[in-house]
Amino acid sequence: MAAPKTIIDLVETFKKNEHIYTNGDLFDEENTKTDFINPFFEALGWDVTNKKHRSPQFKDVVYEKSIKVGNKTKAPDYEFRVGGTPIFFVEAKKPSVNLETDKSPAFQVRRYGWSAKLKLCILTDFEELAVYETTTKPDKKQSASIGRVKYYHYTEYIEKWDEISSIFSKEAVLNGDFDNFADSNSDKKKRGTGEVDDEFLKEMEHWRDLLARNIALRNKDLNEDSLNYAVQITIDRILFCRMAEDRGIEKYGTLLELTKKDNIYQHLMEIFRIADLKYNSGLFCLSADPDRHINRDMVTEHLTIDDGVFKEIFTGLYYPNSPYEFSVISPEILGQVYEQLLGSIIRLTPSHMAKVEVKPEVKKAGGVFYTPQYIVKYIIKNTLGKLLQDKTPNQVSKLKILDPACGSGSFLLVAYQELLNYHLDYYNKLEKPPKNVIYQGKDGEWRLTITEKKRILRNNIYGVDLDFLAVEVTKLSLLLKVLEDQNKDVVEQQQKLFHERVLPDLSNNIKNGNSLASSDILEKDLSDDEIKSINPFDWDDEFESVFENGGFDAIVGNPPYIKMQILRSIYPKSSDYYKEKYETSSKGNYDIYVLFVEKALQLLNDEGKMGYILPHKFFTASYGKPLRKIIAENKNLYKIVHFGDQQVFDNATTYTALLFLNKKINKTFEYDRISDLEQFKNGHYVEEDNILDFSRVTSDEWVFVSGDEEKVFYKLYDMPHKIVDYTTLSVGLQTSADKVYIMPLIEKSEKTSKVESKELKENFIIENDILKPLLKGNEIKRYGYPVNNHVLIYPYAFDSNEIIPFTRKEISQFELCYEYLKLNRDKLLKRSNVDSRNWWIYPYPKNLKVMAKPKILYQVLSQKGSFTLDEKGEFYFVGGGNAGGYAITTKNNNISELKYLLGILNSKLTSFFISKVGSCFRGGYYSFGKHSFEKFPLPSEKLENEELENLVDKMINLNKELSEAIVPRDKKLLKKQIEITDNLINHLVYELYGLTDEEIKIIEESIK
């Protein structure tokens, strides 16, 4: 792509007058922007000055005039966006600045980009243009070249225009080339680097530790709750004040100035009191006020805290010591940090020393997992977004949006932003917008007044959380959102105009309590500590006005995922109560998220919508049946986005879906299966018409297939003959002490074998006659003759087709084995259901008979059918569920029937079917367990087809020959024969099931 005339002219102009432009006294930063930088990026397709008159929240570029606050610039000069989402910053300098070697501007732009979690940022004075990757924590000591991935001199613009536009043009951003370039140059995966939320979390954990230890040491009268509150609210207040400084709302350096004084906490409290009078939020509730619905803070006012604590915290909050640029750290990023911080709690030792511990429910759940922004936005778009369509602000003011487990407030922040965007867009389109709702800033842009933003927040946004600290964080995040795009002049002007304090009191909107337990739980015999931990919440009383109008219009969120066993161990009284109160808790080992779905349906009004991200396990698990029944009977389902094995949460393996319900009777629903998560992240949603009939939604397992695959799948699914009607599916042996009984085989001789004990971590010699060849799941190969690398101690004998456990006399005849087992006696006696007199046998002698029968063996987790034949009943195996292996036997132990089934089960048709009904796992694996096979169809009731059986015989022999082949040429020929035979089997199976060419093509495409 040749450089456009605009760029050629800019380069020529700069070249002619370079001596003027590079003289700092003659040509400043503002002139550089207007004359050179603006037209440069307009040539890249960006609407820099908003000539298309887009609404402020959706314009291409947020352009800041350089406003100095103290010794620093308030914000980046340019923020380039797509659909309101920031993509990269551009920091402008005058041409007299040497960008190639000067460390300071490089640190500044990297600090901006890193703090805002952007991938790349640009530093330019037009004479030079430097591109920095900003996923790495910046350091003021680093040279200007660190993190720089591209550098251009203006004399190169024409020659390299194609390269520049292929990365930074608007078109390049929209088609993904910008992201591809950024990802290829990212340092975030390198050791020692960290994203801003990870690093800031470490910082805040350090502040918490400093404050907790010092407050506990100097204030012996504080209990744990007061200590946790004092530490959290102090951090919240400090952050609010510091972020207000960088937004130009408060004087820059106010907190830093305190480090020069004695008795810092007294001076800090004075700042907080002034903030209380100015802002009115519950964050600074240090004075009695009858207009507020929150009690005055009686904990923090008279604390004693050493000056050294605040000196360490405050000096790390400012340039050049701080890598953080608080003007661009969004409430959403702050929420991610707080979500992790809330996973721990401060405890007091008997000597009143503070220590931080992970909360038990968080520890057992494996950590805290923050919902990615793209998921939150999608849920809000498909709930609140739909409710906003074709409504006036007056109608919108009646909408009530709830997150019943709000955590740090991520869903409520995005919902609030959606409401702000709606109102600003609506008012912008009016010739004469109502007074006091919108104003024009000095930059010419129209913005909502603080009074209007407060009205929207108090009118529409509601949240509840069991953690009172989480409630305070949600309030803080929402208050910071109110102050976005504001500065000191605007705040003070609107205070005078509207005669009210700046921020709203959110105590009537964001509340602390247990969303699942109302006060009737107090009828149980509960201790004070139990009442405190349960913290019952009465919805009708707490949100009376909402329920006078029928309930909430939208309920959104990411409810907790806590299995019943964990819940019972932490909150035994709560779990008993849930069992009584919730229909969804009536079956199996349920997970608490199903209760949150049931509660949401109770809290919605007749027009309301629910959108949650949650595990899709309830679609097929037995514990999900009560919830499936509720949804099916009431026809609540209107949309599912199924992520399959795609991992939405960082650092966690959780298989999730988006579930959208409403209170209307739906005749159809939308079903989207996401195969490419990166595309989904970038906003490329499923566009095909995946509308399914509601008749598919029952209390039975939910198996949904859409698009071209729907017809062929249900043709198979609805066939009358099921494999479970003609065969038996068996799990493996359950020893309850696999490390004792199962051992790697080191060497086998005529009468004994040398084995390795995983339990005792040493080698032993064991008699062969008490050992059985054992297969692990991954040793079971498709059509392969099994080769075992492990053996199993099997203390049983056959007698007239019965399995009889060895007596003491019989087991003692195997002297070597018995001596080994005696070394493990204590461990074996600890197994549940063990017979203490016969402690060497298995407590659960399940499926022992199956082991010696002819059978089909297969891995439970596999990417495709992985079935083989154990014709003589030689091999034993353990496992079940989604681990180890399974066996299939026929009623008559007929080898021909097993071969017939083997051909069908290893076919593409079976892999296609299981990929739709089986649970999915990372890496494209599916569960071929018993649950997946219960609905698998057979083409007829007769388990026979001579042609198929002959082909299966051939496949078994070819695979055996391949395993023994040594010469590469022989291996190549055998592989080709196996491929041809496999294709013949597949097409014969298609024929047996009566599939058309079109249906075959759909299956083949599906499992490529």
From TrEMBL:
This is site-specific DNA-methyltransferase (adenine-specific). It comes from the Archaea. Residues 62-139 form the Restriction endonuclease type I HsdR N-terminal domain. It is an enzyme of class 2 (transferase). It comes from Methanobrevibacter olleyae. InterPro entries: DNA_methylase_N6_adenine_CS, MethylTrfase_TaqI-like_dom, N4_N6_ade-DNA_methylase, Restrct_endonuc_type1_HsdR_N, SAM-dependent_MTases_sf, TaqI_C. It catalyses: a 2'-deoxyadenosine in DNA + S-adenosyl-L-methionine = an N(6)-methyl-2'-deoxyadenosine in DNA + S-adenosyl-L-homocysteine + H(+). Keywords: DNA-binding, Endonuclease, Hydrolase, Methyltransferase, Nuclease, Restriction system, S-adenosyl-L-methionine, Transferase. PANTHER family: DNA METHYLTRANSFERASE A, DNA METHYLTRANSFERASE YEEA-RELATED. The lineage of its organism: Archaea, Methanobacteriati, Methanobacteriota, Methanomada group, Methanobacteria. Gene3D superfamilies: 3.90.1570.30, Vaccinia Virus protein VP39.
